[in-house]
Amino acid sequence: MGEFTLRILVAGSTGQLGSSLLNQLKGSNHKVKITSRKKPDGIGHYEWVYSDLSSGEGLEETLKDVDVIIHAATSPIRNSKMVEVSGFKEFLGKMNHIKHIIYPSIVGIDEIPFKYYKQKYEAENFLESCSIPHTIVRSTQFHNFVENLFYQNHYLKNILSLVTLNSKVLMLVNLPII
Length: 178
What we know:
Elements lengths: L6 E5 L4 H10 L5 E6 L10 E4 L8 H4 L5 E4 L8 H14 L6 E7 L8 H15 L4 E6 L3 H10 L5 E8 L2 E9 L2
């Protein structure tokens, strides 16, 4: 495999994005360390370290021997304020030696009025104000994430119905609650 080029931490390695990132990093010359609340199955040669953004437990250990962080950890449904804002701010405070952090975010996050999006945007602002070199990558949402969010979200003022055919979104219809 040769010499490692970067020591990368993937935070939130068991989620949809984190799992995809690990697949992309597989076979690379980077030394990849992963962290999550639950140890994933089949992690291969990756080093796993327990951490929990909502409690702060394990954060310092995760940062040992790491140059770059890809922060894919998120909690859009439960404990979102604690994970997205408080936990992330505490995590940032421990990253003095980190060379770069990559923060995945969402296209249009500064325009979406829902709580989770406001909290992600607040986390972006914390990152922008710190001295750690960083990149914020705003991507479009995963379709299944959006669908799950709407089904589980009780504070929506409107019901958003997805009209689908063969798992492809054809139309977004905004129906007011009656």
